[in-house]
Amino acid sequence: MDEQKTSSEKNDQPLSADKSLTWQAQEYLHHEKNVFWYTGLIIITLIIVVILAFLKQWLGVLAVLAMVVALVTYGRKIPRHLTYQLDNKGLTIESKTYPFTHFKSFSVMPDISWHSLDLIPNKRFAPTLTVLLDSAHADTVIEILSAHLPREDHQLDFIDRLARKLKF
Questions:
Q1: Residues 84, 25 contacting (CB under 8 angstroms)
Q2: How far apart are CA 47 and CA 42, in angstroms?
Q3: Angstrom distance (rounded) from CA 22 to CA 26
Q4: What's the mean per-residue pLDDT of the chain?
Q5: Percentage of residues in the chain having pLDDT higher than 70
Q6: CB-based burial of residue 131 (10 Å sphere; 0-12 exposed, 13-18 middle, 19+ buried)?
Q7: Measured at the alpha carbon of residue 82, what is the angle toward residues 71 and 150, in degrees to the nearest 5?
Q8: Would you state the pLDDT for residue 5?
């Protein structure tokens, strides 16, 4: 019983200065592409290339072929496993630290076996920093971030929904 009392007392206390969490995760989600995925890509590419060639849009043909090569190359790339550390100073990914002052808010998108943490930057054209974490660490991450940034959950946009459907 003393252990339960101690843990509930800890939850009532403000965030301590030494609160931190370290975890490892992939740098992005990777889906293995099967033969059907590549077959579909080839069929769609051929249709677009034939239409563009019929219209004598040779630059368009080259652009589509270059995009397909980039898509296949990026789709086959295996993500690295990175070490993340979240503390009262900010988020450290490998050896690079991102202080909380660089962000205006955060959101957490839960999924089946992982969560996607998005840190929204202060700068207008800076990209959102997305970090993957497993469900076991989600509550601690939200607790640490909530002490420094407001939480603003959002829905997936069209590109994100399309990427999930295409398993990319």
A1: yes
A2: 9
A3: 14
A4: 81
A5: 85
A6: buried
A7: 95
A8: 35
Q: Are 85 and 91 in contact (CB under 8 A)?
A: yes
What stretches of 55-83 show up as alpha helix (H) in DSSP? 58-76
pLDDT at 126: 87
Of the pLDDT bands very low, low, confident and very high (cuts 50, 70, 90), residue 14 is very low
Exposure string (b/e) for 9-40, b if CB count within 10 Å is 16 or more? eeeeeeeeeeeeeebebeeebeeebeeeeeee
pLDDT tier at 144, thresholds 50, 70, 90: confident
Q: Is 117 exposed, middle or buried (0-12, 13-18, 19+ CB in 10 A)?
A: buried
| Interval 82-125: pLDDT, tens | 888 888 888 988 889 999 999 999 988 877 567 888 888 998 88
**Whole-angstrom distance, CA of residue 2 vs CA of residue 45:** 65
Q: How far from chain centre, in Å, is Cα 11?
A: 28
Contacts of 146 (CB under 8 A, 6+ apart): none
Question: Which among 64, 59, 79 is positioned nearest to 132, based on CA atoms?
Answer: 79
Position of tokens 């550390």? 85
Q: CA of 101: how far to CAs of 75, 86, 116, in Å?
A: 33, 14, 20
Ramachandran quadrant class, 94 (left: phi over 0; alpha: psi -120 to 50; beta: rest)? left
